[in-house]
């Protein structure tokens, strides 16, 4: 075997996974097609949202999904040609919107969220990256009174259950907390314990340098297939092969196609997000979630980044001009400014909004850490720790994050 463990995928989840395994003493090789952290992890909103315990896939989506998709100004859209690929995903999605299933998913997420920042804090300190994450808290703001009240009702019930501090705000308090919003909001919520990265790409680069410093290895290669061999697995690369006793797929949307080649049909959807920089040098005190638009605005090193939206489409489809124009309208509405350098990337999303973290009973030594959706940055460190512990202890009999829940 070339290595003890290979981690495929060098986004923020794969980087954290490789670091967690290397720190446990495993001979670890990280494999990716390009520069670590330069894919989807490059373009996120930068929020470590350790308050986001309840999945975005809510019971109310059963009734609102079709109107949302048909509304040109909705944050959600589904590319018609891609919808045909979502049959299995859709069946599990509808099951996940049942109240009981949704609450069970929330409690699973809560078990991760309670340690999400603690795990990140340890990684940031070890990698010398603490200056890249700010602790100013995060505001989520609402323009529509009805959606604000609905959100508060959920917050009162579930945030209390998970002991997550929050502070309801009126419209004036939202403006005071954020500082640059030009329009009126009905109200909002302030999460004092949330953090944000001022430069997500620089954070990934710091993590990669730390991984190499603790003895990790890196191979720049494209993984085309995986197959089991006696006592391990072999990766077929574009130019050659690599083998290891154990393999972790932290490959986002590519996980689905790699697994399908060995007969595992794991429902993962490509949920694309967009970002752009507000084309004006504004001062913002802290990030704000513009809830009715489905985006966050985050003060980053190179300006205020508006990031979000939810476009179910092929990961490699051309960027949608309609979505970029939507970001432009949001920027003008809230900041009286245009946008520059628009970007699109593809999140990997599960039907229930809970990541896949675990192994496969019929493929010993093959593991996944993927499907984090909107919470890749938030959950990267804690799911890496959870998977590293399961790899050391063996496949868990009871694991709410196991891919087997959808197989």
From TrEMBL:
One GO cellular-component annotation of the UniProt record comes to: cytoplasm
* SUPFAM superfamilies, alphabetized: FAD-linked reductases, C-terminal domain, FAD/NAD(P)-binding domain
Q: Which InterPro entries match?
A: FAD-dep_OxRdtase (IPR006076), FAD/NAD-bd_sf (IPR036188)
Question: Does the keyword field hold Amino-acid biosynthesis?
Answer: no
What Pfam families does the entry give?
DAO
Residues spanning the membrane? none
Q: Which GO terms describe its molecular function?
A: oxidoreductase activity
FAD dependent oxidoreductase domain span? 5-389
Q: Which UniProt keywords apply?
A: Oxidoreductase
Q: What PANTHER family has UniProt attached to this entry?
A: GLYCINE OXIDASE, SARCOSINE DEHYDROGENASE-RELATED
- Any idea what this protein is called? FAD dependent oxidoreductase domain-containing protein
Q: Which organism is it from?
A: Halomonas aestuarii
């Amino acid at each position: 075997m070339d290595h003890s463990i290979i981690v495929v995928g060098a986004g923020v989840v794969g980087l954290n996974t490789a670091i967690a395994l290397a720190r446990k003493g495993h001979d670890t090789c990280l494999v990716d097609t390009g520069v670590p952290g330069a894919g989807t992890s490059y373009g996120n909103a930068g929020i470590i949202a350790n308050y986001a315990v309840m999945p975005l896939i809510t019971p109310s989506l059963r009734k609102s999904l079709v109107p949302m998709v048909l509304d040109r100004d909705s944050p959600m859209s589904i590319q018609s040609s891609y919808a045909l690929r979502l049959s299995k995903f859709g069946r599990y999605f509808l099951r996940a919107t049942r109240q009981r299933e949704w609450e069970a998913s929330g409690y699973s997420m809560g078990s991760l969220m309670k340690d999400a920042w603690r795990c990140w804090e340890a990684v940031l300190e070890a990698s010398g990256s603490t200056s890249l994450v700010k602790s100013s808290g995060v505001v989520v703001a609402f323009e529509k009174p009805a959606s604000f009240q609905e959100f508060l009702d959920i917050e009162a019930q579930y945030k209390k259950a998970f002991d997550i501090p929050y502070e309801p705000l009126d419209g004036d308090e939202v403006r005071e907390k954020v500082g640059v919003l030009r329009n009126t909001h009905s109200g909002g919520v302030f999460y004092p314990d949330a953090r944000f990265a001022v430069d997500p790409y620089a954070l990934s680069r710091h993590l990669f340098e730390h991984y190499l410093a603790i003895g990790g290895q890196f191979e720049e290669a494209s993984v085309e297939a995986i197959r089991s061999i006696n006592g391990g697995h072999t990766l077929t690369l574009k130019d050659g092969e690599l083998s290891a006793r154990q393999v972790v797929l932290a490959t986002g949307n590519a996980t689905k196609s790699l697994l399908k080649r060995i007969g595992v049909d794991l429902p993962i959807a490509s949920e694309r997000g967009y970002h752009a920089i507000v084309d004006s040098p504004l001062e913002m005190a802290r990030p704000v979630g513009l809830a009715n638009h489905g985006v966050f605005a985050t003060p980053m090193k190179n300006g205020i980044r508006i990031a979000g939206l939810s476009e179910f489409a092929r990961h490699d489809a051309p960027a949608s001009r309609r979505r970029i124009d939507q970001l432009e309208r949001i920027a003008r509405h809230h900041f009286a400014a245009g946008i520059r350098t628009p970007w699109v990337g593809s999140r990997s999303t599960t039907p229930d909004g809970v990541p896949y973290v675990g192994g496969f009973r019929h493929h010993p030594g093959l593991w996944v850490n993927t499907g984090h959706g909107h919470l890749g940055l938030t959950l990267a460190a804690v799911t890496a720790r959870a998977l590293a512990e399961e790899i050391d202890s063996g496949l868990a009999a009871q694991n709410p994050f196991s891919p087997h829940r959808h197989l």
